Amino acid sequence: MAKIGDIDVGNFPLLLAPMEDVSDPPFRALCKEQGADVVYTEFISSEGLIRDAAKSVMKLDIYEKERPVGIQIFGANLDSMLRSVEIVEASKPDIIDINFGCPVKKVVSKGAGAGILKDIDLMVKLTEAMVKHTHLPVTVKTRLGWDHDSIRIVEVAERLQDVGCKSIAIHGRTRAQLYKGEADWKPIAEVKNNQRMHIPVFGNGDVDSPERAVEMRDQYGLDGAMIGRASIGYPWFFNEVKHFFETGEHKAPPTIAERVEVAKRHLEMSIGWKGEKLGIVETRRHYTNYFKGIRDIKPYRQRLVTTDAPGDVFGILDEINDRFAEYTF
Question: Could you check whether the bond before residue 68 is cis, i.e. omega within 30 degrees of 0?
């Protein structure tokens, strides 16, 4: 049974990865309904929080039905990170997660996200200071290393644990790889198999089928799987993995009616949370997967991602429901 601090997260929990412009409250709610054990917010800039930047502050919105929920922050300045912890605490999350893994250039160039993998001492120092600054469990998400020649993840994980980190999620790529190539889970297993490690070690990267989740659990012996891209526009993925764990069989995929109903709820919640314009725009990235694999769907999907009026978008979803009602996957 995995525990993050005092929080029991179950046997081989499935965690929704923090994803920019994806892991917002509407999507987290859908993933939670569909079996996600722990969800994380989009990553939030510590500098944005202390400047009271509207976009950063909005990302602090969390809701009771999401728990346990972690708020993820990133930054490289110790004072800013500590000040942001106090702001984050006011939202009453269950976990504070530090992003030491984002490979995006605008983050890395400031020494934050995966940029900190060039300075492991600072990474450890920041983590230790944050642990001492809050009563909440502090966790870390990171990558194997900056590049192939600088992978020291076994040592890094041990040092983070020693300063009070309560769990670590590791993406099986280096920063240099970005999202290219295959994720390498072997170094993550080495972290887990280190005799000194006693905090949960979660794997991330390329968990795109129930079989891969089983492999991460049984072959690599990790404590849980953090799911990212496989869940975008497909919150059912969590329950499909759990069904496979229990039965060894694939759960029937959602019907057209179920996909349309969830896509509508997603859009309604998004508009309710962030307003009409942004709600419509930021839901668009999900439509590809909501209706993936359906023959002749392309013209409908094209309209979904170019239509700006809510009523028209709901109308297109109704058209999909009518046109493909008998479609079988």
Answer: yes
Do 254 and 222 meet the contact criterion of CB atoms below 8 Å apart?
A: no
* Main-chain dihedrals φ then ψ at residue 100, nearest 5 degrees: -115, 30
Q: Is 283 among the domain residues?
A: yes
> How many contiguous H segments (helices) and E segments (strands) does the chain have?
14, 11
User: What residues pair up with 40 in beta bridges, in sequence order?
Assistant: 70
Q: Confidence band (pLDDT; 50, 70, 90) for 187?
A: very high
Say if residue 114 is in the same domain as residue 26: yes
Tell me: pLDDT of 52 over 90. Answer: no
Tell me which residues are annotated as active site. Answer: 102
Domain count, the chain: 2
% of the chain at pLDDT higher than 70: 100
With a threshold of 0.85, does the pTM exceed it?
A: yes
CATH of the domain at 192: 3.20.20.70
Full residue range of the structural domain in which residue 288 is found: 256-323
